């Protein structure tokens, strides 16, 4: 096989490259200009949401039968990657819409899908995912939020913490215990609406990064919802939550490589222009080695992420391993790359006048949410060591 042909193995299909170009164009014109302000003010970037919605990039994964674009897992990852390259907080619009709706796609009734996926596809609502609690983070099976059956309704009580886009989203996938004695097998999933009586939100968290994406607690105080809003059968919620994360960890990996790409792009331009000792900084071997390592790690993360996206689309048996591996590797790489980008800019990199310090702060969360990277390593080890 000729060298030229061998590289074709890694070339994306034309339709995926076209999606990348389209998202990049929208982001350059209408998302990137809002990134610094969203970070500075901590306000949801409504203009960026409107731009993504107008281009149908706000929830591209929703199937066409529910009014969505029907993007496959790789195309969705590319959308998130390109938005994150411009603004990490804005990339949580398509990412969390997928996270919130994935339980419905995996286990919801047809009626439930049509009722809730259609307005999300139209851009009339966003969807958030409520799994974590104040005392149940990595140990999600220890949740204390309860759902008690009352005739044709369920009554929910509890607190959910670290909920991305809480207060902005209209709909929430809420996991609650319907049988505390059964631990994980007693957890069920429900759709809760922002307008339901008894739903309220805490103050926005004061975060290190992704400041334009609100993170709040969600309070459920005797929230009474119809029984048909249960997602799947009673007691299957925890399994649905874990299956969801297998798919959506790929989107966090995509977000991480997008942030890293944005930092590398900026740093490359800077070291080519910045002069010290009479020549461009990029001409110094120490700088070249840093840039080479950044590019190498980024491309390795990208290839692993795209491979995991393919497994997500096909529903491969080893998705659990690959989703965890992609998320873990890409987020660790993003943290290293953005930190090096700050280093390459020197003192300027440490100021808010330049975007790389924001990118470094934004990258950190990718090592934490949807399962810390320590948890990802446990997941990978279990997959590798099982019979």
UniProtKB/TrEMBL annotation:
Keyword Flavoprotein in record: yes
Stored Gene3D superfamilies: Acyl-CoA dehydrogenase/oxidase, N-terminal domain, Butyryl-CoA Dehydrogenase, subunit A, domain 2, Butyryl-CoA Dehydrogenase, subunit A, domain 3
Coiled-coil residue windows: none
Domain Acyl-CoA dehydrogenase/oxidase C-terminal: 235-385
PROSITE patterns tied to this protein: ACYL_COA_DH_1, ACYL_COA_DH_2
GO molecular function, one term: flavin adenine dinucleotide binding
The entry's keywords: FAD, Flavoprotein, Oxidoreductase
Cofactor(s) named in the record: FAD
Top-level taxon of the source organism: Bacteria
Family listed: Belongs to the acyl-CoA dehydrogenase family.
Protein name in the entry: Probable acyl-CoA dehydrogenase fadE25
Source species of the chain: Micromonospora costi
